[in-house]
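note to self: the first set is below, dont mix up w the second
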Amino acid sequence: MTSDTPSIDRLAKLRGVVEAFTGQAFAVVDGGQFDDLPDVCRREQLLVRSLFLDHPDAEVERAGPWLVSLAQSPDALERVFALTAEKPAAVYWNCASGEAVLHRHLRTLNRVRIPRWAVDGGEVPPLDGSGQEPAAVMFRHWDPRVLGATMPVLNPGQFVRILGPAAEIAFLAEDYGGVRRVVADPAFPPDPGG
């Protein structure tokens, strides 16, 4: 059983991992964990960029993922930690290619295709082979619980596709072992795209 509030030790460990990033550090924060994350960030003087740019529904955009460059100020990491310490609301990315490249990449991960049988709640493919056609679903890559469940079951191509230009992802997923690091492996194939 896990607690809704992460332990101080795990938060300190996550902070240490993010502070050790060798490239540029970013946080992707889950707007769904807040009443109005963009407004909260404005008050905290944190610049954020929506990963649901120009969504026709402002509420959906507000509840979606928001990219925060941790290089924008010396205490940006501290402010993001203060906002998200009590919630499963942030995934940290190490990307030397910069904000524009990471922003573009993350926007390509918002929707994924999975077999229809999985969308319908199946745990294994049907024996008759039905339900194999792909269905597009939202991939909540900004939710540490989703990454905690997803990353261990990916094949190398899928793993590389999620990482894209990033060297590393770090997050706290209490139900999946606490602080998790996803590190790019140079032996994996190139990003297949799509």
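second set (the one i keep forgetting abt)
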Amino acid sequence: MSDVAAIVLAAGRGTRFGQDPKLLAHIAGKPLVRHVVEAAVMSVAHPVIVVTGHRASEIQTSLQGLPIEAVYNAFYADGLSTSLQTGFAALPANAKAGVVLLGDMPLIKTDLIDALVKNWRDLNEPAALVPTLKGQRGNPVVLSRELEWLIEGLSGDTGAGQALRGRADVLEWPTADPAVLQDIDTSDEIRKLQKL
């Protein structure tokens, strides 16, 4: 059992995407959300906690056969903060941290997750480790359990990003991987990705 879990946030409505559920749109023959969950399952992070909300049963069906722990966020309509809180509350007792992944980032690979966890350990387990590309902060991020109080205080449709700014115990990890900035928000973006 790892002392770092993975938390995949897959509860949102994806309103900018249109009528169809964004996380269930297919890329390379698989639902968008399944790409990132598979990367997490193959990583050193364990267990893989998937936070569901909007279209929860369909999201779970799309992940059939994967060793995950699905937790339902009844307050998903209140925004991203509630999903982060739900995921953090589901961390096992031995977990020192969670790698927080967004369900709409299908280009995230296992190697990136593993490198983040390794660097978090090598840097003496800071409160958070945030990947950056050319100075811009991205995802996924490693959030230490010691930030639980901060996460509990979040509200609305925001993650921990703003609350982490300016803290000396939050470290940045530069990477050349463009996947850390590539999330899917619109149907145009997914069409471009499908062509690739």
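remember for set 2: Helices lie at 32-41, 56-62, 80-89, 110-122, 148-152, 161-164, 187-195.
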